[in-house]
TrEMBL record:
Name of protein: Alanine--tRNA ligase
Native species: uncultured Sulfurovum sp
EC number(s) on file: 6.1.1.7
GO cellular component: cytosol
Names of the cofactor(s): Zn(2+)
Amino acid sequence: FNGEVAFKLNDTYGFPLDLTEDMLREKNIKLDLDAFHAKLDAQKAQSKAGWKGTGEAAATGDFKALKEAFGVNEFVGYTETSNNTKVLALLDENFKQVEALNGKGWVYLAETPFYAESGGQTGDTGILDFNGTKPTIKVLDTKKFMEMNLSEVEGNIQVGDEIEALVHNTRIEIERHHSATHLLHAGLRELLGEHIAQAGSLNDDKRLRFDFSHPQAMTAEELAQVEAWVNDKISSNSTGVTRIMTVDDAKEAGAMALFGEKYGNEVRVVNFGEASIELCGGTHVNNTSEIGLFMITKESGVSAGVRRIEAVCSKAALAEVQTLRETLTEVKTELKNQNPMAGINKLKEEVKTLKTELKTALSSTKKELTASEINGATVIVDEVEAGDIKELIDEAKNKYPNIAIMLFQKKGEKVLIACGSKETKVKAGNWIKEIAPVLGGGGGGRPDFAQAGGKDASKIAEAKEKALAYLAKNL
């Protein structure tokens, strides 16, 4: 089975790869996984093309030589957020090996606590400390190349330096959002159905974004139910348990696979009580209670059959609450009412009253339109200062059995034009197309009603004369 088609099903429509494989297995059809992963790698390379050191530079970098020389470095960040380690190699901004950096580049550490961007979790930042021998340098990001964790740095560093690597405390917030994403995934499947499958995700220290397969927009009630479900699981104080299992054992245990991930013979399975169990290589909280408040901020469509939820938790959720509180206070101040809904209802009533008063005032000053007759048809061509000219035309059409009417109304330097025809030979749309250009405008409409706009109010008198001449010729 064509792997590129399987990729499109996964990427565009959110159809999970493992389900495609299961369906093909039942028919004894083999899936071209190499083609699938080739498309996936190409997509990832394209998304990285915005870095300095473009996708092309990443593809031609010295990664193969690095891996042959040192193998895959050890990630110790599941249990440690700092460790003493050694700089094995350095790459410049074009991913070429160098002996020293004095600016931006990439560092390859023997053991690293920095998590490399993967599975939707953003890469770690932090610092490298030289124990006082020279200034600390910043770790700006961490990414994975050919299974190796490399951290982007900026500063003065040399191959062989002994350093202490310290992960920035934003990792805590990233983990909270990542664990909240697992609970959100489980909640959506529980409340909307098992057709829900992950189609992409992003977890950083300030928000989470989760794409999933679903045929329609979620209702406000469904969003509230999902939000409440996740907060309930957070407050259940479930311990996060991570186990290393074979892929088959993990699937047997009910673990859900994540979008776009390649899995070896053994996988990490992250479990939060009975609420959630997923295959995941990311880092997570030790207990759901660490996530804190969870808030959905937006639900939208991504593509056909794929929806997106954006949400916040922990410190970001508290900041969101504070923003909402400040907005509510501002609304109360503007409404001069401590009960915003009561204030809004009062304003609506005032607007309704003002509209009624305005309509009455306009009616009392309404101009009496002067009608004449051409070949047995009533005609009105006039200028009005106030009122709704469409409404005036409707009233005239109701008053007379047959009529051709055109009204002009100044709006600053511009002019509104509308006309109507009832039981006459004149077609309103054609009539207005002849007259509007006199005023520097244009318009059109149906045979019974048409409207237009003009730019030159000084030529209304000329337009009225031409409108009457048109009627004399066509009635």
